[in-house]
Amino acid sequence: MGENKSVENVGRREIIKALGTIPVLGVFFYKLFKKHALEEIRNASVMEELGELKKNPSVITSKEPGKLLRLGIIGYGGRGHALLRAAGFTTPEWTDDAKQRAEENKMDKGYETFVGQTDLNVVLNGVCDIYDTRAEEGLAASTNDDRPGSGTRKLTTAKRYRHYQDILNAKDIDAVIIATPDHWHAQMIIDAVQAGKHVYCEKCMTRTANEALDVYDVVKNGNVKFQLGHQNRQIETHLKAKAIVEKGILGPITLIESTTNRNDPGGAWQYEIEDEGTAKTIDWKQFQAKAPTKLPFNAERFFRWRKWFDYGTGLAGDLLSHEYDAVNQIMDLGIPKTAVASGGIYFYKDGRDVPDVFQVVYEYPDRNLTYMYSATLASGKSRGRVFMGHDAHMEVGRDLTVNPDPQSTRYKDKMEEGMVSASLPLFTYTTGSKEIDGITSATSKYFAKKGLVYTYREGKRFNTSHLHMKEWIDAIRHGTETSCNIERGFEEAITCHMATESYLQKKVVEWDPVNRKLI
């Protein structure tokens, strides 16, 4: 290590001069040593720019488990399953299937990662779902001891609730996970906070901008811990990217572009319509109570609710929300001044009213930058997420790459000296294994590539939703802050709703921060 230090501390001319004094070892060895020495100089030059950035993010901070926390979940659909699993509970069917996949594919670490999660010292006391089949699955999950911390405590069957108000009134529940369709989020958050329950809510935080204002005021004045479900806040490459921006490695950033490309039915919200889902097993009246349009029972609208603005928030609230929150985490952009969006229903002519092709341009004049987002649900072409600066551009996903700009002011001298090459990355950061648990779904692979499934800390793999859930539980116990609190949640909601309103009204939408309204 000492010899390498000495090489790094001398200049290019000194190295070449020193090479001339070495006894003749043959042309091959001379060239090899010279090449190695110059590479050491280049590396030292780059490290001078990057400082401590080459270090990995630290392992997750361990906190005392504290007293037992009693959880309830409202909505045990797709995301409800995933979030409850992040808290340490899942159905016997899931664990059996995960173990079977691991036996068939040694690279499949889904089960290993699940049982290796931190035991959060929580118990599931309540399950609320208006669909009988899913409620029963939630109850089964509450007593499945094939889980983190197996055998450490006696598990009892959770109570089934048919109305969310009842689970909020329960005395044996401290905190709730809300994983319902978007049109119920606002009312449930408000009622939960007023009932004194801590809240973890899936994104998008609300269905409308006005709802976001109401939620913000109630949560801000409440005495509970709130976490919005953007698990990307736990991705190690985002932490690295934020440090790179803060150190000015990219120079002035004037343009950011992020994208969504999916090309399979699941990615377009064409979910399975279960045979068990009928007017007898689903409380349709309760489902559509907060929806602006009331219709007779419709199984497709229940299972594929994301396809309609009556219940969901479209590409803006469902997928742009992930992209914006990642950018906001890295750049601290906040709410833009204006948004202009366009798109249409160009591929899935199936009666939906949310677009399957969508793009929006946000302007941040106070930051001298533009943020562009575009999406299609009919092409799998990966386009990534790029931060474009005067001196370098950075691509951020599960991995991270920084490339210098040929016209960079900051790296001009180093490029002229051969210390930095415009054709080579200035910095790369690669997370753990590139295997994706033998997942075959294109949508699952999309989320994995974005880093939304797993992340790594010091070589160990973590479920990002588990880390996000753990952060919320730790905040409840120890009074710490959550990374996607009501401030960040409000910024996400308003920013996404600006895009949706622009699309629907076919005009530029502006945020008025003084009067807190869209204009």
UniProtKB/TrEMBL annotation:
The lineage of its organism: unclassified sequences, metagenomes, ecological metagenomes. The keyword Oxidoreductase applies. One of its GO terms (molecular function) is oxidoreductase activity. Keywords: Oxidoreductase. Signal peptide: none annotated. This is Gfo/Idh/MocA-like oxidoreductase N-terminal domain-containing protein. The keyword Protein transport does not apply. InterPro entries: Gfo/Idh/MocA-like_OxRdtase_N, Gfo/Idh/MocA_oxidrdct_glycsds, NAD(P)-bd_dom_sf. Residues 125-230 form the Gfo/Idh/MocA-like oxidoreductase N-terminal domain.
